Amino acid sequence: MTNQRTTRDGSHGTESVPTQRSRESTDEDHGCPECNGDLVTDEDRGETTCGECGLVVEEDGIDHGPEWRAFNAQEQDEKSRVGAPTTNMMHDKGLSTNIGWQDKDAYGNTLSGRQRRKMQRLRKWNERFRTRNSKERNLKQALGEIERMASAFGLPDSVRETASVIYRRALGEDLLPGRSIEGVATSALYAAARQANTPRSLDEVASVSRVDRGEIARTYRYVARELSLEVAPTDPASYVPRFCSDLELSGDVERRARDLLAAAADAGITSGKSPVGLAAASVYAAALLTNERVTQNEVSTVANVSEVTIRNRYHEILDAGGEPGVEA
Amino acid sequence: MTDPKETINIENVVASTGIGQELDLQSVAMDLEGADYDPEQFPGLVYRTQDPKSAALIFRSGKIVCTGAKSTDDVHESLRIVFDKLRELSIKVEDDPEIVVQNIVTSADLGRQLNLNAIAIGLGLENIEYEPEQFPGLVYRLDDPEVVALLFGSGKLVITGGKEPKDAEHAVDKITSRLEELGLLD
Q: Is Cell membrane set as a keyword in this record (chain B)?
């Protein structure tokens, strides 16, 4: 009885995990409501306080972790209040049953030949039952595709989840007819990555997708308009850390590049310019200013923009940043 | 400060008409001097007029599209030339076939740099399309007049989709007043 109650509480807890997570991150974004200081979470006390003024922003926080301590794998399973979370990344939200492939019973003994054949038949029908109609088969393929591309980019689960939700909405609103599953899946991922401020450029996306850049761009515009995703224009600065680390440049360069981009935006020379090109040029310019050698060729390879673009932009960026007269 | 409306310049006018009978383009192409007809490239016959400068696309169905003219008058003028040419080939064309203007493309200049990022947010992301990765202009679709405006960082803009020259003026008026409201035109 008690056990059942805790189980229910537990599953409730899982559902609220994503919202909880997103709220925490917005807390961090906004900071303390009084003084805008950084928030500190004390997990022992379950309190969130402001590191500057000491204001308690949240108390009696909920611990979403499993019950008590567990000392071995068996106890961990017993004391866990939660099952696997539901996820939009699987076509059935991870709610279906899978029949294991091992042909062993609960004790680990090998099944008899008769049972083995039975499990084989059950497995076949389970698989057929899991994807009953074309919509589910469609979802299965698309979500698999999203998963594959997100892995290639090393995008976190939150982005994959968002991409999956965007795809589900597109499917629900009948945007698929006339467009390819791969195209819509790719643009869902592209949109999700941009919304999470970890944008991947269209060229990068096209390099792992099964459809070409033109189709991705077209489908993305269509999906974004129909679902009113309202994705803000990409901030060039969000590419900077990735380019810097790919080029093995120091944090100094990264900071300098951000400053240059901010100055360029203030000077109003970024309107209508490709964010990827701006980011690449600012990284190149910042590396020059901090005497770390990179060639335009290296930057252009990493950023997937042409050297000409970098050359054209970095002069403008240096001028706007008040650093004229620096030459390569 | 000059009024942006004074910088309005019509760049292209597209109009359609028809002569109400099917044509054998192959023989028309033979007889009509200066006509380009390559059915593998394009199913229509292209006939270019020099004064006013424009191109008329003549289709097998007898429908004619005239494009490239710089004003509505020019469209009528060049279509009149085309009709006369066809009459010379003893193709029957009634006196005044109806000419419908389909699209007018206009350019204008707001006279100062625009911060497209701020405009994108200000006009509302649901009303505009701004993808600097794909196209440097900001696409703004107006409901009244029903035109599409492309705004560029240089302050220049292109207005397309209008059916009459007045549409462009209204659009420029609307855009300037919207941007002034938002304080984005200093």
A: no
Q: Note the ipTM here.
A: 0.81
* Mean pLDDT confidence for B21-39: 90
The count of C-alpha atoms lying within 13 angstroms of the C-alpha of A285, restricted to the half-sphere facing its C-beta, is: 34
Comparing alpha-carbon positions, the chain B residue that sits nearest to A220 is: B131
Report the pLDDT value the prediction gives residue A179, as an integer from 0 to 100. Answer: 93
Give the full edge-to-edge strand order of the sheet including A39-42: A39-42, A47-50, A56-58
Q: Which of these, B60, B59, B71, B85, lies nearest to B15 by C-alpha position?
A: B71
Distances (CA, A) of A209 to A36, A149, A161, A205, A316: 42, 7, 18, 6, 33
A212 CB near a chain B CB, below 8 Å?
Answer: no
- B120 shares its domain with B64: no
Measured between beta carbons, the chain B residues lying within 8 angstroms of A275 are 132-133
Chain A CB contacts of B112 under 8 Å are: none
Which amino acid appears at position A245 of this protein? S
Q: Which CATH number is B27's domain given?
A: 3.30.310.10
Convert A78-115 to b/e letters by CB count within 10 Å (16 or more is b). eeebbeeeebbbbbeeeeeeeeeeeeeeeeeeeeeeee
Q: Is A238 on the interface with B (CB under 8 A)?
A: no
Q: Are residues B72 and B124 in the same domain?
A: no
For chain A, the average pLDDT equals 83
Q: Are residues B122 and B92 in the same domain?
A: no
Predicted pLDDT at A165: 94
Minimal Cβ distance to B125: which of A230, A234, A275: A230
Q: Do B137 and A230 touch (CB under 8 A)?
A: no
Q: How far is B137 from chain A (nearest CA, A)?
A: 6
Same domain, B113 and B65: no
pLDDT tier at B185, thresholds 50, 70, 90: confident
Enumerate domains of chain A plus CATH numbers.
Answer: 81-93+109-231 (1.10.472.10), 234-319 (1.10.472.10)
Span B47-70, pLDDT tens digits: 999 989 999 999 999 999 999 999
Tell me which chain A residues have a C-beta less than 8 angstroms from the C-beta of B115.
268, 271
What global pTM score does this model have? 0.74
pLDDT tens digits for A245-292?
999 999 999 999 999 999 999 888 888 899 999 999 999 999 999 999
Q: Do B153 and A274 touch (CB under 8 A)?
A: no
Assess B125–A contact: CB distance below 8 Å, yes or no.
Answer: yes
Q: What burial letters (b/e) apply to A232-269, b meaning 16+ CB within 10 Å?
A: ebbbbbbbbbbbbeebebeeebbebbbebbbbbbeebb
What's the number of domains chain B is made of?
A: 2
| Same domain membership, residue B31 and residue B89 | yes
For residue B152, the chain A residues in CB contact (below 8 A) are: 271-272
Q: Is A32 annotated as a binding residue?
A: yes
For residue B63, the enclosing domain spans 14-100
For residues A70 and A58, the model is more confident at A58
Which residue of chain A comes nearest to B115, CA vs CA? A271
Instruction: Supply the pLDDT for residue A325.
Output: 52
Let me know whether B37 and B114 are in one domain.
no
A244 annotated among ligand-binding-site residues: no
Write the pLDDT tens digit of every residue in A85-101.
778 888 888 777 778 88
Residue B130: inside a domain:
yes
User: Is B8 inside any structural domain?
Assistant: no
A35 assigned ligand-binding residue: yes
pLDDT at A96: 76
- In this structure, are B96 and B113 located in the same domain? no
